[in-house]
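Hey all, sorry for the wall of text incoming. These are the two entities for the joint prediction.
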Amino acid sequence: MQGAFREHQQALTGCGVESVQIRRPEQLADVDGLIIPGGESTAIAKLMINYDLFERVKELGEKGMPIFGTCAGMILLAREIEGSDQPRLGLMEIKVRRNAYGRQVDSFEEDLEIPVLGKEPFRAVFIRAPQILEAKNNVEVLARQGEKIVLAQEGNFLAAAFHPELTDDLRLHKYFLEIVKKSIA
Amino acid sequence: MGEKGTWTVKKGLAEMLKGGVIMDVTTPEQARIAEEAGACAVMALERVPADIRAAGGVARMADPTVILKIMEAVTIPVMAKVRIGHFVEAQILEELGVDYIDESEVLTPADEHHHINKHEFKVPFVCGARNLGEALRRIAEGAAMIRTKGEPGTGNVVEAVRHMRLMMAEIRRLQNMPKEELMSAAKEMSAPYELVVQVAETGRLPVVNFAAGGIATPADAAMMMQLGADGIFVGSGIFKSKNPAARARAIVAATTHYKDPKVLAEVSRDLGEAMPGLEIATIAPEQRMQDRGW
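and here's what came out:
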């Protein structure tokens, strides 16, 4: 719809997987998993609502379709958004803070330890990035940047505050594809 | 803390704006209307290009108060313009914390020979271009995003179309060239050889390329997207029209669904009057904004 969809598609192609850009609800029938890219969460949510994608994605998510949200996508997955009543899918029991690091001049990249991806650190690009303030119940914390939670999983949902699609490291996309494979097995 | 202001981070924000609409606004109220309509960013200005064109005289960076108020009003990224070559205006905007700087031909140039060395800044820059050579020169200076110049403030899309078509044609031409011809192509278009080679190999600009300058209707926006733009800037087109909120929403929808005539037909209805347009031939050569910069 809006955001870094091209980069995600390149990453998926790199993993040997086919992908389509979803703009209309009927297209959702053809996919096994969904990535909600970085972009502006307010703009993406508006477009999803206006073109009947919002409720459809929520329904499919509740039925177990794997969804990977990066940055804005993570905000849309969250149940709670600090100080905001903007629309969200609310599929994950997490509370997030938008623009948690400040404005663009505070955007940064850093090596993260992500144990589920192996020993090699993961170069994470944070752009006007959010943070997870609280992760409840069944949410598994997969990575922290300092004290802050920046990668989490709850069942078939994966949320990253950073942008794995902006680097050549495909490990996180492959990790998500494993979730998708298990869900259709 | 990690590394700030890297090329990945600067270019990355532009990638996030892709498929979206960036709207010129002059007040916090307009900024909120833009955000509410689904804009992916706003450009904070004292006057929109049509008014700058009408007023004449020297147009400069906006008053920081205007920019700060708009930054407080919305959560989406806020951009602001500096005069071509005016690196101190850029230092001021970086200090204010704007998310993107537009080194723009809409304002009166401060330097007729040199653009800003954009590598020196942590904040990313977007620059206008009429052709591939100009785009690659700006990228070599550090621009992390490119837009067509078009002819700002006219409500006439013809120049933006010309610039986008030319850029795409030049990219296709490079793609089809044997490698030994790329050096003389670089010489002809006065562009750095390394970037020319990169474009020839990848078939696209190394950064995001938006359309700007004269876009006034949803159809204009969708046309620019079909011609290969990554997203849309609308300057005067929204807040100089009769019903800004409806037009803003329609242009956002048209930019997303640019290949879907059904949606385009739907959103083009009942928008009220568009901004008044200007025939390019009636603009005196020295009034043409696109010829500012090189």
